[in-house]
Specification:
It is built from 8 helices and 7 strands, in the order αααβαβαβββαβααβ. With 198 residues, it is α/β, with parallel strands linked by helices. Helix 2 (20-37) packs across helix 4 (78-94). The radius of gyration is 17 Å and the shape is globular. It starts with a helix and ends in a 7-residue tail after the last strand.
C-alpha cells in the first residue's frame, strides 16, 4: 500500500493559514467594501454574519473538502460574498499569505473558458444553473459545467460556486453524480434571508 500511495500525487488543497477570526474580519471588511462600491448601504444581518463566519471556517479548516457552495434565492448576498472573497485573496496575495488569486466566471461563460476553468488552482463559478446544460460543438453534445466540475473534483482543485438552485434542483439539472460529489467535497452555505435589492 505504501508503494501505491507514493505513486500518487497528494494534493494538500487550498487553505488560508490564518486564524478563522482574522479571516472573518477580513471577509467582513471586504464584504462591506463591495456593498459600498455599488453605492449601497451595508445592512448588517445575522444571516450575512453567519455566512461570512462559515466561509472563514471553511477556508481555514484542515477539512478534506475542496470547495464552497453558496445556495439561496436572488439578492441575498451570495455574489457579494464571492467578490469579497476574491478581493480578500488579492489582499492576502499582495502580502504573500496566499499563492493564488481567484477568477470569477459566470456559469454562462464556462463553455468559452474551459481550459482556464479546468486548470486554475482557485475558481469561482457565479450563478450556476443559469447556463444551458448542453452545448453543441461540431456535432458533439457537451455539458461544460459538468465537465469542469468533474475535472476539478478529480484534480481536487478548490472551487467556489454560487447558485439559486436548491439541492433537489441541482440533482435534477446536473444529475445524481454531481449532487453526490457536492455533498462529499463541498462546504454548503445556505442563504435564507430576504433580498437586499428591495
Amino acid at each position: 500500500m505504501s508503494v501505491l500511495l507514493r505513486q500518487r500525487i497528494t494534493r494538500t488543497g487550498f487553505k488560508i493559514n490564518l486564524p478563522p477570526e482574522e479571516v472573518r474580519i477580513l471577509l467582513t471588511a471586504a464584504y462591506r467594501a463591495e456593498v459600498a462600491s455599488r453605492n449601497m448601504k451595508y445592512q448588517e444581518s445575522e444571516e450575512t454574519n453567519s455566512a461570512i463566519k462559515k466561509m472563514a471556517n471553511a477556508l481555514t479548516s484542515k477539512s478534506h473538502k475542496t470547495g464552497i457552495v453558496l445556495c439561496g434565492t436572488c439578492g441575498n448576498g451570495k455574489t457579494t460574498l464571492v467578490r469579497a472573497l476574491q478581493n480578500s485573496l488579492v489582499y492576502l496575495k499582495l502580502r504573500n499569505l496566499v499563492e493564488y488569486g481567484m477568477p470569477i466566471v459566470d456559469a454562462r461563460e464556462v463553455a468559452d473558458r474551459m481550459k482556464e476553468c479546468k486548470t486554475v488552482p482557485l475558481l469561482a463559478i457565479e450563478d450556476m444553473g443559469k447556463e444551458p446544460t448542453t452545448k453543441l460543438d461540431y456535432g458533439n453534445i457537451l455539458n461544460p459545467v459538468i465537465e469542469v466540475l468533474e475535472h476539478r473534483y478529480n484534480e481536487q482543485l478548490f472551487t467556489v460556486i454560487s447558485t439559486n438552485l436548491t439541492a433537489k434542483e441541482i440533482k435534477e439539472k446536473y444529475g445524481t453524480r454531481i449532487a453526490d460529489r457536492f455533498n462529499e467535497m463541498m462546504n454548503v452555505i445556505i442563504f435564507t434571508g430576504k433580498s437586499f435589492r428591495r
